[in-house]
Amino acid sequence: MGKIPVKIKSVVYGLSPFQQKVMPGLWKDFTSKVTHKFTDSWLGGVLLVGPVAGVYTYVQSYQEREKLEHRRIPTQMVYASRDRQKEKTERSSLDHLYMQMVFSDC
């Protein structure tokens, strides 16, 4: 077999240390591109984020209610404590009146 030299044309790409523009079109008009994407597909975003946010808030409230369930005071205990508080105030006012009567005679 004979060796015949063949001329090959090739293009070699390289980055210059003085000018590097890697993906220059990505950052060009970035804000307008992002706003365009959001305004075109806002319904899809709402339909995706809405149920996820709803489930998350429901789970958080359910866990909070479950955590506080053992701290609930039964209704009878609330009324009993109110009655005790009322008796205390009545007793202290009667004691005050009695003391006034006792010391006013002196």
UniProtKB/TrEMBL annotation:
Source superkingdom: Eukaryota
Protein name (Swiss-Prot/TrEMBL): Uncharacterized protein
Protein's organism: Arctium lappa (Greater burdock)
Upper lineage: Eukaryota, Viridiplantae, Streptophyta, Embryophyta, Tracheophyta
